[in-house]
Amino acid sequence: MSNKPKRRFRRNEDGRLRLVAGTMNGVEYYVGAYTGECSGCACDCGDGYPCSHGAGGCDECGYTGKRVRHFPVAFDPSETERMHAMERSAP
Questions:
Q1: Torsions phi, psi of 86, nearest 5?
Q2: Which of 41, 42, 13 is nearest to 29 (CA)?
Q3: Is residue 69 included in any domain, yes or no?
Q4: pLDDT tens digits for the chain (91 residues)?
Q5: In 3D, which of 20, 39, 38 has the Cα closest to residue 30?
Q6: 22, 70 in Cβ contact below 8 A?
Q7: Contact 50, 43 (CB under 8 A)
Q8: Is residue 78 domain-resident?
Q9: Between β-strands 27-37 and 66-74, what pairing exists: parallel, antiparallel or unpaired?
Q10: Residue 74, Cβ neighbours under 10 Å: how many?
Q11: Residue 58 and residue 41 in contact, taking contact as beta carbons nearer than 8 Å
Q12: Which of 30, 18, 32 is closest to 69 using CA atoms?
């Protein structure tokens, strides 16, 4: 017999089946992601002036200039406020 914990799945508000990643303040959530600019990159021109081409990359992003960011998403959008309530009240 395997001792692996059972994975639980639920449907989100769009009807997609998602892996339950955990609970936060009693609210089950899954992990969402988006790709944005890397926070560690700077222009690689070296002249100190702002450029329109963006960043050239760094070790943090693997020289792509982009980072994937992950965040918790409540299965029920009405519970999002309750899920993040403790985060805002922390010092």
A1: -70, -35
A2: 13
A3: yes
A4: 567 778 889 998 888 999 999 888 888 899 999 998 887 776 656 555 555 555 567 788 887 878 899 998 988 888 877 777 766 565 5
A5: 20
A6: no
A7: yes
A8: yes
A9: antiparallel
A10: 20
A11: yes
A12: 32
Does 2 fall in a domain? no
Quote the number of domains for the chain.
Answer: 1
What's the DSSP call for residue 78? G
42 occurs within a structural domain: yes
The boundaries of the domain holding residue 63 are 9-85
Would the pTM count as exceeding 0.70? Answer: no
> Which residue type does 27 have?
V
d(CA 18, CA 51): 40
Amino acid at 35: T
